[in-house]
Amino acid sequence: xxxxxxxxxxxxxxxxxxxxxxxxxxxxxxxxxxxxxxxxxxxxxxxxxxxxxxxxxxxxxxxxxxxxxxxxxxxxxxxxxxxxxxxxxxxxxxxxxxxxxxxxxxxxxxxxxxxxxxxxxxxxxxxxxxxxxxxxxxxxxxxxxxxxxxxxxxxxxxxxxxxxxxxxxxxxxxxxxxxxxxxxxxxxxxxxxxxxxxxxxxxxxxxxxxxxxxxxxxxxxxxxxxxxxxxxxxxxxxxxxxxxxxxxxxxxxxxxxxxxxx
Amino acid sequence: xxxxxxxxxxxxxxxxxxxxxxxxxxxxxxxxxxxxxxxxxxxxxxxxxxxxxxxxxxxxxxxxxxxxxxxxxxxxxxxxxxxxxxxxxxxxxxxxxxxxxxxxxxxxxxxxxxxxxxxxxxxxxxxxxxxxxxxxxxxxxxxxxxxxxxxxxxxxxxxxxxxxxxxxxxxxxxxxxxxxxxxxxxxxxxxxxxxxxxxxxxxxxxxxxxxxxxxxxxxxxxxxxxxxxxxxxxxxxxxxxxxxxxxxxxxxxxxxxxxxxxxxxxxxxxxxxxxxxxxxxxx
Lengths: 262, 283
Fold this sequence. Notes:
The complex is a heterodimer of chains A (262) and B (283).
Chain A lengths: L3 H8 L11 E10 L2 E11 L4 E6 L5 H8 L7 E6 L2 E2 L5 H8 L2 E4 L11 H12 L5 H14 L15 H13 L5 E5 L7 H18 L2 E5 L3 H7 L2 E6 L2 E6 L1 H6 L3 H9 L1
Parallel strand pairs in A: 3-8, 3-9, 6-7, 7-8
Antiparallel strand pairs in A: 1-2, 1-4, 4-5, 9-10
Helix pairs in contact in A: 4-5, 4-6, 5-6
Chain B lengths: L2 H7 L4 H12 L4 H28 L5 H13 L2 H25 L6 H39 L2 H7 L4 H39 L4 H8 L5 H9 L1 H17 L4 H34 L2
Helix pairs in contact in B: 3-8, 4-8, 5-6, 5-8, 6-8, 6-9, 6-10, 6-11, 6-12, 8-11, 11-12
């Protein structure tokens, strides 16, 4: 399987145009009651680049993604999308920026009263009103075909497996053709074959769409396959950031321990 | 023996005891939480209401969802409301006949039934039935969506959940409550008359003519339309409780219960104010 770095080398633009990063997280602090989750974290992602965020459970990886899409607000620091500060914007204004993002939730978060096709059509119905019903149906079929779910249009989310739900969630996240893709534990709870299929799918999307992606995962193997860069979090901050080889060569005890246990 | 001596004698470390009492009264202590809780709840409700209002009056409008909710709140509550109204009509009829006979005022029966049903029992019974059915339904549905991150998914899809989920449900409650009240009133009057007619011959025409004799719109319209305020209370509290839920299945259950309990409680309290208001404004 070609890795993300192979793809980036072929495309020759893994680091974007060198100007403003697509996503820039700067010195962000976030606490819940007395528990500090993120402690001055800084990260950035460029176009056509995939950053994998690794770390132990409870180190704030998912909170980081929620901050980037604006579901949480930072206590201090800034989250910039294409250079624009996201915090403090009104919900509708935030919506304009969110249209450029796709988010795959850890448990897919499919709308349980809608069918698979209706789930994928949902963002299109709200934001692509110029599309006719048949155009929308064609687009839904195309998106579901991309994730290998074209035969399950009329099934309910409760009737499909966890892996299939994630595929549908991914199709929904891609519906508005986002420039930024945020994936929260895309392979968690899946068997190795399904995990490999999801990884393959993410690489395919990376090849075809040049999105800036952030993948939160525990799965080091998956991270190594799909990401250009890896960032390892511990106690609310980035311990190390770089390619997999950089992590391997690091002398930091936590990094060595993490690699050994993964 | 000093207080300190007593505490020491009882085997309690005075420093710990002092620390505990400070903690009880501090910002995060249980007593402070008990005092702050209602303020925090009303404050959050105020912020929530403002967000819903802002979302409701600005485009894009969610017409399709509103129509779906009108059906959900209106059509699907109609059988229950009609049945409750019918039962109330029979009860009032039986009670009124007995009480009025005792005071030799049997001729007042039609007016007593009409006024009791339309001014008092119809609105409040409709409100309570809808609070039970719709309030619990909205509270549980939104809470379930919240704990499974479906509301976050809506927001992440650049759709305002206050507009799509809350504003449509609240507006549907506001619009449907007066209509459901009219249905409950009609059923109550029909069954009330029928219960009376079974004992003593009384034509429906005669009953209506006698019951509404000298009545003005002021006597019947405000009590019916005050149920729009009930709708606001039921919808607002159910949406608020649902969308602020935390904690899995237990949280969903709590949201459904709180939606019904608080909705019904505030509805009855609001009725006290509304009755007085109507008496003053529409004498």
